[in-house]
Recover the amino acids of this structure.
DNA sequence: TTATTATTGCAACAATGTTGCATAAAATAA
DNA sequence: TTATTTTATGCAACATTGTTGCAATAATAA
């Protein structure tokens, strides 16, 4: 995390640092609306561009659960730019509403005859650890 | 398919029949832009409302592959309204661009300790049957 | 055929996202 | 450190996507 921006070769500006710190603060995925609330003041356009470049550089990744707004979460180290081969599934809790990346022991092998699968994304909804307790 | 609209208890209008026939014509998922192209003329608002009610009534379902526009496909019979427990995965071909529902023999069992999984959605990208040949 | 109910299309708006360009700030070279 | 180059920011303006109230119209039920 120390100097993630420089590592990814993008300029370190106060705004980008602030947005990054918001993502690091949460350990689950968050929608843009939460980023906006955390920023005391911000420029809409700059925020869009910041999100865009963070996505491009593999700093964050986007999680779209059908019927929900986009959520964003910090990428783990194995997340190479533009090739998000997740070893986790994306989970949305129907009770608390939190979207998170859940590590999974062994990723299921899906075999489709004659197809070539390059990327796999698994999304689940239900009750999270806390809400299921 | 004969009288799907009446079965789902929504009025049968010329426009709805036309939109439905477009979805039936394709045997893969299609984005709104294709529906628009197939309709010689249409009202934007009515189309949105038609898609919305088709989704609500379980006539079509929405497929959102990260980074892509929404695609829509006719629901199979097992698709009960509001509870799309797919026995297929959603596949996007990186070469021809087509999004489709691919039937899968046995759905993988994903177990997350302490979580309760209610719905599972699996998305894959790669090369489809045709493009991989 | 008539009465009731639901759909359509218009106008107007709201939310979300993009682009060109001048200014300001950050990174790099001297 | 300063000067130069490169990149980011903010404004204005626009594009796309989706929504709502309401009057007119069409579909269904009686």
């Amino acid at each position: 995390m120390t100097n993630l921006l420089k590592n990814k070769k993008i300029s370190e500006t106060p705004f980008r640092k602030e947005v990054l710190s918001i993502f690091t603060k949460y350990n689950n995925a968050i929608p843009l609306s939460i980023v906006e609330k955390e920023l005391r003041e911000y420029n809409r356009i700059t925020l869009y561009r910041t999100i865009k470049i963070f996505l491009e550089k593999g700093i964050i990744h986007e999680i779209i659960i059908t019927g929900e707004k986009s959520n964003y979460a910090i990428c783990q180290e194995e997340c190479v730019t533009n090739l998000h081969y997740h070893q986790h599934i994306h989970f949305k809790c129907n009770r608390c509403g939190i979207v998170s990346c859940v590590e999974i022991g062994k990723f299921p092998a899906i075999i489709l005859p004659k197809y070539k699968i390059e990327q796999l994304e698994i999304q689940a909804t239900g009750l999270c650890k806390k809400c299921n307790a």
